[in-house]
Write a structure and sequence with these properties.
Layout: E1 3-6, E2 9-11, E3 14-16, E4 21-22, E5 27-28, E6 33-35, E7 38-41, E8 45-48, H1 56-66, E9 74-76, H2 82-85, H3 88-94, E10 100-102, H4 104-114, E11 120-122, E12 128-130, E13 135-140, E14 150-154, E15 159-163, H5 182-197, H6 201-213, E16 220-223, E17 228-229, H7 234-243, E18 251-256, H8 262-277, E19 282-287, H9 293-302, E20 305-309, E21 312-313, E22 316-317, H10 319-331, E23 337-344, H11 350-360, E24 364-365, E25 370-373, H12 378-393
Parallel strand pairs: 8-9, 9-10, 10-11, 15-16, 18-19, 18-20, 20-23, 23-24, 23-25
Antiparallel strand pairs: 1-2, 2-7, 3-6, 4-5, 7-8, 12-13, 13-14, 14-15, 16-17, 21-22
Helix pairs in contact: 5-9, 6-7, 8-12, 10-11
Length: 395
């Protein structure tokens, strides 16, 4: 499959309808994804990125139907992760002397993955590559989301090839932002940002401001995953600026795991207490052992506060709660509040442990938490509801 975007600019990527896990088993892709690669024909022909390794042979065959491979003058590697560069070895077997343009860190990464000494050309922000009637302008974008990441901008057609930035894991044959379901699209966009780009929010904001200062007109943003932004493309840029600014909505997310439903009953009572005080706040509950962890992370990103609970087991907490807290710690959320809760039968250290983990993750701890012995009775349920009321009043 391939199609012309405009003026001899072609999408030559791959739609992966089957993908359900990404980055190993780390990221859920309920709606599949795309690996977007682009071919520009001018006096010189340039290929921007490739596709993931399992589709390498298919990619090279598809590309050869759009252009004779020996007519490709340049290859741009905006990012070295295998979902973008995975077809390079198969392609370079066909055209081994074709120069590859990337950042200095890109050279290190590509050599690290493929152990090949291809004809690398290092570029930095402001460097240009003439295609004939148009130029490609390079913009280094380190840590968006890898050290080697960069964008490139096509003059005259005013297209920003942004690689991972502004993308989403979303398979669609429609391929343009104005043609797909908008709720699905933006839900996948915020999930992508929350799970992948949150730790680099200060760099996101800085890089976007740097690009905007160049005053380059942007008529289209061609990402490496998901749809092409052609209708008001800067809307996703504005969303990134909003998300990068310690984003939060009027939402509280309660995360818990439970053994014999005691901690679940506590979670539900706390939620009722919150709603009693603030009927406008969105309250969402997730069992961390049963809900998708990336969907939970998305809701944490949207929340102004979270409450995390686990029963105490073996002087510790349940593994699913420990796991999601480790994910949360690594994402370095800012300006969010938190508290802990849980049931216990013998020792009861779990609440204190969760509190410490939340503190290490950068959350402002609202109180020392609440714990209840064995199965909560009516009085315990009321204490949990009161806890929810007091928690939301403190925000």
């Amino acid at each position: 499959m391939h199609f012309e975007i405009k003026n001899n600019i072609f999408w030559v990527g791959k739609i992966d309808w089957e993908l359900r896990k990404f980055h190993g088993e780390e990221y859920s892709t309920h709606k599949g994804t795309t690996y977007n690669s682009y071919l520009i024909k001018d006096e010189h022909t340039v290929l921007i990125d490739t596709v993931w390794t399992p589709f390498a042979e298919e990619f090279v065959d598809n590309l050869s139907q759009v252009v004779s491979l020996d007519k490709i003058d340049f290859i741009i590697a905006n990012h070295a992760e295998p979902d973008h560069s995975g077809a390079l070895p198969a392609l370079m077997k066909e055209i081994p002397d074709t120069p590859i343009y990337c950042t200095a860190n890109g050279v290190k990464s590509l050599k690290g993955y493929y152990h090949k000494d291809w004809d690398f050309h290092v570029v930095k922000t402001g460097d240009k590559l003439s295609l004939g009637s148009r130029d490609l302008v390079f913009v280094s974008a380190p840590m968006l989301h890898w050290p080697d990441s960069m964008f490139c901008y096509l003059t005259d057609d005013n297209i920003l090839f942004s690689n991972d930035a502004f993308g989403q894991h979303y398979a669609s044959e429609l391929m343009y932002n104005d043609l797909v379901d908008q709720c699905e699209l933006f839900d996948e966009c915020i999930k992508y940002y929350a799970n992948i780009l949150t730790p680099f929010s200060h760099l996101v904001r800085k890089k976007i401001e740097e690009v905007l200062e160049l005053k380059l007109p942007v008529d289209m943003i061609c990402t490496s995953h998901g749809v092409i932004w052609r209708d008001d493309p800067l809307q996703i840029v504005n969303k990134y600026m909003e998300w990068a600014d310690n984003y939060k909505e009027n939402q509280i997310t309660i995360i818990y795991d439970t053994m014999w439903n005691s901690t679940r009953r506590m979670a539900e009572a706390i939620a009722e207490g919150i709603r009693k005080v603030d009927g406008m706040v969105v309250v969402k509950l997730f069992n961390s052992a049963r809900a998708d962890k990336n969907d939970i992370i998305k809701e944490v990103f949207k929340s102004k506060a979270i409450i995390v609970g686990s029963p105490t087991i073996n002087n510790g907490i349940l593994s699913s709660v420990s796991g999601i807290l480790e994910e949360i710690r690594g994402l370095r959320f800012r300006e969010k509040k938190a508290a802990a809760f849980g049931s216990y039968g013998w020792s009861g250290e779990g609440v204190k442990m969760i509190t410490e983990l939340l503190k290490e993750a950068g959350f402002e701890i609202v109180n020392e938490g609440i714990r209840e012995l064995w199965k909560p009775d009516r009085e315990a349920i009321k204490r949990c509801a009161d806890f929810g009321e007091n928690f939301v009043k403190s925000l």
